[in-house]
């Protein structure tokens, strides 16, 4: 179980996509994400977990210190009625940032979940759309 951060989430799926191999996920966040996964009752597919500051700056408008650089944020591939259920559980378990991208091809749809106390982009709790 060395490559698992929790029962359902691996280091590989949470590490930065730039190739640096960093996976500085916050353990409290991962515990909450695992609880969310168990209560949701089905797989949670991560499209983006930890991002090193350089990679985050390249792909996100949040720059060098966006939510993903804290290890307290993930993007989850999900669409349709599953979005409603996942958000319902995320709110119940105290996720403080929820970004919703549900337009375009279903393969590109996702929701962002984070657990920041405050963020440069706005106060918490906060829900937004892309």
Low-confidence stretches: none
Count the domains.
1
Number of strands: 5
Structural category is alpha+beta
Mean pLDDT, to the nearest integer, reads 94
Number of helices: 4
User: So what's the overall shape?
Assistant: globular
Spatial strand order of the main sheet: 1-2-4-3-5
Strand content: 15-25%
Radius of gyration: 14 Å
Compute the separation of the termini in Å.
36 Å
Main pleated-sheet profile: 5 strands, mixed
- At the first level of CATH, what is the class? Alpha Beta
In sequence order, what are the helices and strands, one letter per element?
Answer: HHEHEHEEE
Overview of the structural elements:
- It is a single chain.
- With 130 residues, the chain is of the alpha+beta class.
- The chain has a single domain (11-129), classed as Muramoyl-pentapeptide Carboxypeptidase, domain 2 (2-Layer Sandwich), CATH 3.30.1380.10.
- The chain has 4 helices and 5 strands, in the order ααβαβαβββ.
- It has helices at residues 11-14, 27-40, 53-59, 81-92, and strands at 45-48, 73-77, 97-101, 110-114, 126-129.
- The mean pLDDT is 94.
């Amino acid at each position: 179980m060395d490559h698992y951060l929790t029962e359902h989430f691996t280091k590989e799926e949470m590490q930065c996509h730039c190739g640096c191999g960093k996976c500085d996920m916050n353990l409290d966040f991962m515990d909450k994400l695992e609880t969310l996964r168990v209560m949701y009752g089905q797989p949670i597919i991560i499209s983006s977990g930890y991002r090193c500051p350089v990679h985050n700056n390249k792909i996100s408008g949040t720059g060098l210190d966006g939510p993903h650089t804290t290890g307290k944020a993930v993007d989850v591939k999900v669409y349709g009625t599953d979005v409603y259920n996942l958000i319902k559980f995320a709110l119940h378990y105290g996720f403080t940032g929820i970004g919703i991208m549900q337009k375009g091809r279903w393969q590109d749809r996702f929701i962002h979940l984070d657990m920041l106390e405050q963020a440069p982009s706005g106060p918490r709790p906060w829900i937004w759309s892309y």
